[in-house]
Amino acid sequence: MIEFDNVSKVYGGHPAVTDLNLSIGQGEFVVLIGPSGSGKSTTLRMINRLVEHDRGRIRFAGREIRDFKPEDLRRRMGYAIQSVGLFPHWTVEKNIATVPRLLAWPKDKIRARVHELLELLQLPHAEFAKRYPHELSGGQQQRVGVARALAADPEILLMDEPFGALDPVTRIVMQRELKRIHALAGKTIVMVTHDIDEALFLASRVVLLKDGQIVQDGTPLELFSHPASDFVVDFLGRAELGIKRLGLGSVREHLRPGRPTVGKAISVDASLREALSAFIVQGTPILPVINTNGSHAGEMHFSDLLLPRKDADPTKDQSA
Ligand SMILES: Nc1ncnc2c1ncn2[C@@H]1O[C@H](COP(=O)(O)OP(=O)(O)OP(=O)(O)O)[C@@H](O)[C@H]1O
Fold this sequence. Notes:
By secondary structure, this protein is an alpha/beta fold. The chain folds into 2 domains: 2-236, P-loop containing nucleotide triphosphate hydrolases (Rossmann fold), CATH 3.40.50; 250-306, Roll (CBS-domain), CATH 3.10.580. Helices cover 34% and strands 23% of the residues. It has helices at residues 40-47, 70-75, 92-96, 98-102, 107-120, 125-128, 138-150, 168-185, 196-202, 220-225, 230-236, 241-246, 272-282, and strands at residues 2-11, 14-24, 29-33, 55-60, 63-64, 77-81, 156-160, 188-192, 205-210, 213-218, 266-267, 286-290, 296-301. It is globular, with a radius of gyration of 21 Å. Keywords: ATP-binding, Cell membrane, Membrane, Nucleotide-binding, Transport. Belongs to the ABC transporter superfamily. InterPro entries: AAA+_ATPase (IPR003593), ABC_transporter-like_ATP-bd (IPR003439), ABC_transporter-like_CS (IPR017871), P-loop_NTPase (IPR027417). This is ATP-binding protein.
């Protein structure tokens, strides 16, 4: 869907991105991560031509992006950024409808789409549609920014630290929301973040950059299982590698049959990292497990945390 072929960008003699090769397929959730100044935002912005590349080729849907008018390209790609950039004198409704109006959608279709997106992002239409950006919290503004990026059902969603300004609780809610939208709509998403936990939670593929070059490109599990260098290990957080890796697995993988037992139950969809925390907080070696509808599912044993993952084949996409 998007292909970078030996792409470079230089600013005033300083290389920002050098000989980048990257191929992003339909439906992937690719997270660009790396230290400050490593070229993440430059890479993202070259996709919708907010930044023009100097060398190499970038293709979108098989055509060179230079063959598209920038505005046509941007209408086909949603773009959400940390500072949101909502139009201050427009209501939430009008802000979300920006691209559909440019595309001259019929009014009814626009109204229905705005309604649908507000509900999807848990901003009830009756309460929020007529508000202005200054009447929203920072987190609500960011949700409107994401709704606006999704409005015309773009083929790709480009996101630059979209949850950067959020408090940790809202940030987790938004990450879950985005993961749900991705699973539901099968959108191709390319996102920049500084937050390794966010990357590991969301990405089907992580692209780790350093000094404008790719250090490693793989599934989260591949990065843990076969880190390409010490830099990768340090970036993943050397001291917490085991705990972070547990975050990639779920209770479901270690579910055992068992009768309901005492203790606070954990969901089959909880991560093994959450399970570890629950074992420690409850001081128990066995946790009751429930399904998403609250019914009894079985139990999990503390010792099973040490078992190798059933699906630990690093050649498989763990996001599926
Ligand atoms: N408009 C610009 N003019 C000059 N240099 C720039 C410009 N934009 C980016 N750079 C430089 O290019 C390099 C890559 O910047 P980029 O913003 O892509 O990095 P980043 O990984 O997104 O960083 P951060 O995490 O701090 O946002 C940096 O050295 C930066 O200083």
